[in-house]
Design the sequence.
């Protein structure tokens, strides 16, 4: 949901603080507005309930559990997201996580930004 700020808002969910800061800086340089980084499922759900982002970057394994609930919420709100995780495809995880584009850690920040740009173009509303 775009506010008066014309920049695209990205919810950044990453439990590794250094990775989160690095990605946040790369997103800012690329012109995105970032909500986060958030390192917990609970924190990500609070952010999501406060404001629906345009896009999201989601780590699978967070400090307080897996991000399956967040993936379902993002899907229900029609928020496109990319999974950025050391996790590999696992059929025991929710379908929303399985269907999202996957960037295996460690991915270069430029690769994450390029994937978000493509996701935004492919799903522009």
Sequence:
């Amino acid at each position: 949901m775009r506010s008066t700020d014309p920049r695209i808002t990205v919810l950044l969910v990453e439990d590794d603080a250094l990775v989160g800061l690095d990605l946040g800086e790369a997103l800012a340089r690329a012109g995105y507005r970032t909500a986060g980084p958030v390192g917990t499922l609970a924190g990500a759900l609070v952010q999501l309930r406060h404001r629906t982002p345009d896009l999201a970057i989601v780590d699978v394994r967070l400090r307080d559990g897996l991000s399956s609930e967040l993936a379902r919420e993002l899907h229900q709100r029609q928020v496109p997201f990319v999974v950025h995780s050391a996790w590999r495809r696992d059929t025991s995880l929710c379908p929303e996580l399985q269907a999202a584009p996957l960037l295996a850690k460690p991915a270069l920040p430029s690769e994450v930004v390029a994937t978000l740009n493509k996701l935004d173009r492919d799903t522009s509303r």
Strands lie at 9-13, 33-38, 55-58, 61-62, 65-66, 81-85, 102-104. The first helix runs from residue 17 to 29.
